[in-house]
Amino acid sequence: MPQPLRTLKIAISGLGRMGARHALHFLHRVPQASLVAAFTPDVPSELAWAKEHLEPWGVKIYTDYDLMLQHEGLEAVCVATVTTAHAEQSVKAIERGLHVLCEKPLSTEVDVVSGFEMMVVTRV
Fold first, then answer.
1. Could you name the CATH architecture of 8-123?
2. Tens of pLDDT along 5-18?
3. Residue 118: pLDDT band by 50, 70, 90 thresholds?
4. Cα(61)–Cα(86) distance, rounded to whole angstroms?
5. Domain residues of the chain, as ranges?
6. What angle do CA 54, 75, 104 make, to 5 degrees?
7. Angstrom distance (rounded) from CA 38 to CA 25
8. What angle do CA 66, 71, 76 make, to 5 degrees?
9. How far is residue 16 from each of residues 32, 38, 43, 46, 119, measured CA to CA in Å?
10. pLDDT in tens, 61-107
């Protein structure tokens, strides 16, 4: 008998236009994903949106990215913050052993992308 599909516990980093869209998709349209946490820097409009649209569904809201990465049972992070934070946040999540989906671009700096590539290659 086939085993039931389990859900992936995922967090979203950034609740701007793309982050909010990803959050709602994970929450309502991806049955194999369970949105358990979300990070947004202390941006009042994003925090208000999260309290209205995510907290009622049990999503824990963080204003500290590093604390969000420690969320119990977290398995993956979708990085959708400002471009300048993509690489740093992705690296932190990978270093914690989490799966990462990062919005493009990873960085606008070639040396950052090259360093990231080397880090990933050495982990595989």
1. 3-Layer(aba) Sandwich (3.40)
2. 889 999 999 999 99
3. low
4. 19
5. 8-123
6. 75
7. 13
8. 85
9. 24, 12, 10, 7, 28
10. 999 999 999 999 999 999 999 888 888 899 999 999 999 998 886 66
